[in-house]
Design brief:
heterodimer, A: alpha/beta, 4-stranded antiparallel sheet, globular, B: alpha/beta, 9-stranded mixed sheet, 24% helix
Chain lengths: 252, 440
């Protein structure tokens, strides 16, 4: 059986600078992978390229998702196929009510998959249930997307979307940045509730702290645009002790 | 040595328009004299062009070229077509007054009387025997301009409304201009007097029947509000895509009065809305907001002149524009703060969303402040849709077109939030949605 996500020898440039120099990664259904590494190692670039953010030039390698060439797809097609990127810095969209946004997005994905659109009552029921489990008040859903939300609320809103869209691959880009410990716990609980044998997660983080809450099956260390070491969850603890410096030498 | 530079400002064609129309214009004697004087003023100035500072971005000699011949009165077939065009404009419960090709259409209007509101037509008043009053209907001292003069010279009809002291009519008053003809010009002039303590909502719509093309709608509204008055004024310009709409509002406010205006332009090839607002009494407030939704080669100009002539008044102007293709949006905002108008607070903000490389938005704020204890500010932004917002929406499954449409809707929707009345806001939103839907 083929992997859910397979990144093969990926080379990526931004403008004239190569950021990823031949990165490979294989993620199967049901697995949680952590990608760790120092600032500038290319972690966020990887997540952006998987989601299809413009501005990155893939100069080599490929990304297969469910056996299909992901790089050939527009960002919205990737979303409809089941790729979900939880943003490090979710954007604020004034004038678009969160509820409207959620419904428009969910129905766009369903339409792209040839599924019927949700009726309003069914949709509301679903959103309310998920929102309640994440401690998101109804009032927040009436506001503009992320407008006036705290850092923690923004991340919970990302988890809310993850729960609603039911993607098969979740990429969490630095989910812990800007969160205090309580906010982190709520968001992580939300993510853990979505762990399933049908879904894979890639958790990108600078710090080991997040991995106390979302415990990975595999840990990969990135440095200078490559995976330089892979291992089990104990690798994260090891890194906490020794730091990233050893790998920087190794990659160079 | 005396040197006089004589420059012909008007070609023969324009004065032909007046000469040809003169006998059909209502009002004799003093009214005809006022018309002639107004036309002479227009003929001397000529069509405004880019070297006239107030018309810098809207050169009517290029955009309009000439004044079209005066529209004739509509026949029954035209009225029947106009009735169809009204169908999509139903503002819930509004008191509707319809002008077709510059003539009041009784059979399309609500004639039921409403307590505290007197409605007459300009034509009837100009033809009335009350000599003293009738010539003043075409005069204004607040603003002068070639197009205001032309309108005074040529006005065939309009609505004259008087809202009595302390009256608060439950229905909004909706003046609808319908054009049914092609390549003619209609000239209308409405006068609204809101007496002390009254509250009223005024809506103006400009529409055309299918097939009406290349026409010109020339309109003026003279609004006088007394003390303790509350006026909401919404304009919805949905003229035919190759039509011109040249409109002036002249507004005078008393004390403790609130005036809230919103101007939505989504139709027309060449639109100019010029509002001259004068604070004549203290502790009054004006919101003058609007949005232009433009594509193709549309040109829309909003020009506001606010005169803070007395102390303790506040004003806020917020204008937005969505400009696609090679359309052109113009905003000119002038705020005059007179020497004793202390404690004035006047603000002006414009935002333009450019959806194509050829789209253009010009902003010209002007503050002229002669008092020293005032707060005045202006700001302007112009830009494309935010790439990071577009990517976020696309990463959530919205195709490119839908993501753009949602962000445009949001930009438009925020502008609409300034319309306090929910029913009116819905009318404005429906108008904007028609534009967005047509955009595809």
């Amino acid at each position: 059986m083929s992997a859910l996500l397979e990144v093969r020898n990926l080379q990526v440039r931004v403008e004239e600078r190569e950021i990823l120099h031949g990165l490979s990664l294989k993620v199967n259904k049901g697995e949680v992978h952590a990608i760790m590494g120092p600032n500038g190692s290319g972690k966020s670039t990887l997540s952006h390229v998987i989601a299809g953010k413009p501005g990155y030039e893939v100069t080599g390698g490929e990304i297969l998702f469910k056996g299909e060439d992901l790089l050939e797809m527009d960002p919205d097609e990737r979303a409809a196929k089941g790729v979900f990127l939880a943003f490090q810095y979710p954007v604020e969209i004034p004038g678009v009510a969160t509820m409207t946004f959620l419904r428009t997005a969910l129905n766009a994905q369903r339409k792209a998959r040839g599924e019927s659109e949700y009726s309003t009552p069914d949709f509301l029921k679903k959103v309310r249930a998920v929102a309640a489990s994440l401690n998101i008040p109804q009032e927040m859903l009436r506001r503009g997307v992320n407008v006036g939300f705290s850092g923690g609320e923004k991340k919970r809103n990302e988890v809310l979307q993850m729960a609603l869209f039911e993607p098969s691959l979740c990429i969490l880009d630095e989910m812990d940045s800007g969160l205090d410990i309580d906010a982190l716990r709520i968001a992580a609980d939300g993510v853990n509730a979505l762990r399933s044998s049908e879904r894979a997660m890639v958790v990108i983080t600078h710090y080991q702290r997040l991995l106390n809450y979302i415990v990975p099956d595999f840990v990969h260390v990135m440095s200078k645009g490559k995976v330089v070491k892979s291992g089990g969850k104990e690798l994260a603890l090891e890194l906490e002790e020794s730091g990233y410096a050893q790998f920087e030498d190794q990659a160079a | 040595m005396n040197l006089a530079l004589v420059k012909p400002t008007m070609d023969g064609a324009a004065s032909d328009v007046f000469v040809a129309a003169r006998d059909r214009l209502p009002g004799k004697g003093p009214v005809a004299e006022v018309r002639q004087a107004a036309f002479d003023d227009f003929a001397q100035k000529g069509l405004p062009h880019r070297r006239i500072e107030e018309w810098k971005y809207t050169d009517l000699r290029v955009l309009l070229r000439e004044i079209a011949p005066l529209a004739g009165p509509p026949d029954q077939a035209a009225l029947d077509r106009a009735r169809k065009a009204l169908a999509s404009l139903d503002v819930n419960g509004a008191h509707r007054l319809v002008l077709v090709d510059g003539a009041f259409a009784t059979q399309l209007s609500d004639t039921a009387s409403e307590a505290g509101v007197t409605v007459r037509t300009l034509r009837a008043m100009l033809e009335s025997t009350d000599v003293a009053a009738r010539a003043d209907l075409l005069r204004t001292s607040v603003a002068s301009d070639a197009m205001i003069s032309l309108n005074a010279a040529m006005a065939t009809d309009g609505i004259v409304i008087d809202v009595a002291e302390n009256a608060a009519p439950s229905k909004p008053i909706h003046i609808v201009h319908v054009s049914t003809q092609s390549k003619t010009a209609a000239f209308t002039r409405s006068l609204v007097k809101v007496e002390n303590g009254a509250r009223v909502t005024l809506i103006e719509s400009f529409v055309a029947v299918d097939g009406a093309a290349g026409y010109q709608a020339h309109d003026s509204v003279v609004l006088w509000a007394g003390n303790g008055v509350d006026v909401q004024h919404i304009r919805l310009v949905e003229d035919a895509r190759d039509a011109a709409n040249i409109a002036t509002a002249i507004v005078t406010l008393g004390e403790h009065t609130q005036y809230r205006a919103f101007n939505l332009t989504s139709g027309g090839a060449v639109c100019r809305y010029q509002a001259f607002l004068r604070f004549g009494g203290q502790n009054s407030h004006a919101d003058v907001n609007g949005i232009s939704l433009l594509n193709g080669r549309q040109h829309a100009d909003n020009t506001l002149v606010l005169d803070h002539a007395v102390p303790h008044c506040t004003s806020n102007e917020v204008f937005r524009a969505v400009v696609d293709d090679s359309a052109h949006s113009v905003f000119q905002g002038r705020i005059n703060v007179h020497p004793d108008a202390q404690k004035t607070d006047a603000r002006m903000m414009t935002r333009a969303l450019l959806l194509s490389d050829e789209a253009e938005a010009d902003n010209k704020p002007e503050l002229e402040i002669f008092a020293d204890d005032v707060q005045c500010g202006h700001g302007a932004t112009t830009g494309a849709l935010d790439d990071s917002l577009l990517f976020y929406l696309r990463a959530r499954g919205l195709p490119e077109k839908e993501a753009q449409a949602l962000l445009i809707q949001a930009f438009v929707g925020e502008a609409m939030e300034s319309i306090a009345d929910e029913a009116l806001r819905d009318v404005a939103i429906a108008t904007a949605e028609r534009w967005l839907a047509a955009r595809g």
